[in-house]
Design brief:
four-stranded parallel sheet; alpha/beta; Rossmann fold
Length: 296
């Protein structure tokens, strides 16, 4: 006969395990931007849980036992890949999950650069900041959902097709927004290198004191070099990000006289009521903020 302690343990486990819809495929995405892409493809047929939620920093996320339970109950786990989720391998191992682990960025040509805080070559993991790459994510999500749930294949293909049309329209909007900015003003300081793929795709230059990840502290020498670069190249604006401490960027702006722009969204969406509650809203918001400060 179960003891009172057994009953409490069962109740706790039930609370920690996601309440998947009976007729939905249980899916996990590692962070909010990826989760939004998965939701757009999965629609009502997928029950999507996101590990790192709105305004959360995927670089420094610390998984909990509840996250391991969430993954253990999933059919598919979508990860960004490219080294973004350094904590994910341990979490998957701890969960004992039988889920398919799908790398959404598979097929993207990685952007290589030198990590400024370490001096060695590194892969930029923020591929979704290019809409062309986001479309690759969507195709990978569609195919993975169709493999796991063949009965929903037509739904996933229809949803993906409709969403890809929206992304094509978004790409045109972003290009039009950047075109409003004079070429000599398309230089921006951001907290960390989250916008490299965006810059390559749309002809902008981004410089960051924290490097590719927010879990590294910029050196005094590195910050001094950036301040000198801002003055030398007359870089007009400094933008904060929703996942980072604003103090360093405020100090850089104070030292250089650069304009402080509004908050950008890089590795995380805002909450649903905010200005970047979806991937499409995020891209529109960021370009709008660039235009407000840089366009003339």
């Amino acid at each position: 006969m179960p003891t009172r302690r057994d009953a409490l343990l069962l109740a706790t486990a039930a609370l920690a395990t996601p309440a998947w819809g009976q007729d939905r495929i249980p899916v996990v995405a590692t962070f909010s931007i990826l989760g939004d892409l998965v939701k757009n493809v999965g629609g009502d047929r997928a029950e999507v849980t996101t590990l790192v939620g709105p305004n959360g920093d995927v670089h420094v996320f610390s998984p909990t036992p509840a996250d391991a339970k969430t993954i253990s109950a999933a059919t598919i786990v979508f990860v960004n890949g490219l080294g973004l989720e350094g904590w994910m391998t341990r979490l998957i191992s701890a969960s004992g999950t039988k889920a398919a682990i799908v790398t959404a960025s598979a097929g993207v040509t990685p952007r290589e650069m030198t990590e400024p805080n370490a001096g060695y070559p590194a892969i930029d993991p923020h591929a979704g900041q290019s809409i062309a790459h986001a479309k690759i994510y969507v195709a990978n999500i569609r195919d993975a959902l169709s493999r796991a749930d063949p009965g929903g294949k037509d739904i996933y293909e229809t949803n993906a097709k409709a969403y890809l049309i929206k992304l094509d329209a978004l790409d045109s909007e972003v290009k039009d927004g950047v075109a409003k900015i004079p070429p000599d003003r398309r230089k921006i300081i951001t907290t960390h290198y989250a916008f490299g793929y965006f810059g390559d795709a749309y002809g902008m230059q981004f410089i960051a004191p924290e490097g590719l990840s927010t879990d590294t502290e910029p050196s005094a020498k590195g910050v001094a070099l950036i301040i000198a670069q801002i003055r030398r190249e007359k870089i007009p604006a400094v933008f904060l990000e929703n996942i980072t401490d604003p103090r360093l960027m405020n100090e850089i702006a104070k030292e250089t006289g650069a304009t402080i722009g509004s908050t950008l969204f890089s590795d995380a969406l805002s909450d649903p009521r905010g200005p970047a509650g979806t991937y499409i809203d995020m891209m529109r918001h960021n370009v709008s903020e660039f235009d407000k400060v840089l366009a003339r």
